[in-house]
Amino acid sequence: MPIYITLMNLTDKGIENIKRAPQRIEEGIIKMQEKKGKMLGFYLTMGEYDYVAVFDAPSDEVAASFLLGLGATGFVRTSTLKAFPGEEAGYIIKDIPVL
Q1: Whether the model pTM is above 0.85
Q2: 85-95 pLDDT tens trace
Q3: Which of 9, 16, 56, 95 gives the lowest tally of CB atoms within 10 Å of its CB?
């Protein structure tokens, strides 16, 4: 399944309601499972981003739908990267045409 890395920042609403964050995170994990995806890792981080999540989803469309729903809550803003594991990256690089 495709893997995604999502960088998140709390909004004003998110920080005002920070005490409920653990419950919202758990709810998000359940929603991802309902969409046949899996949370591979979720981290509270220090620095430019407040959270980092790594998850897989059956398709880009499922990932986009999940992330739009997450943003619609108003608690976080997201920036997402599609990740290619090492072996898959090797195939991609090997297939680069020589110009």
Answers
A1: yes
A2: 888 889 889 88
A3: 95
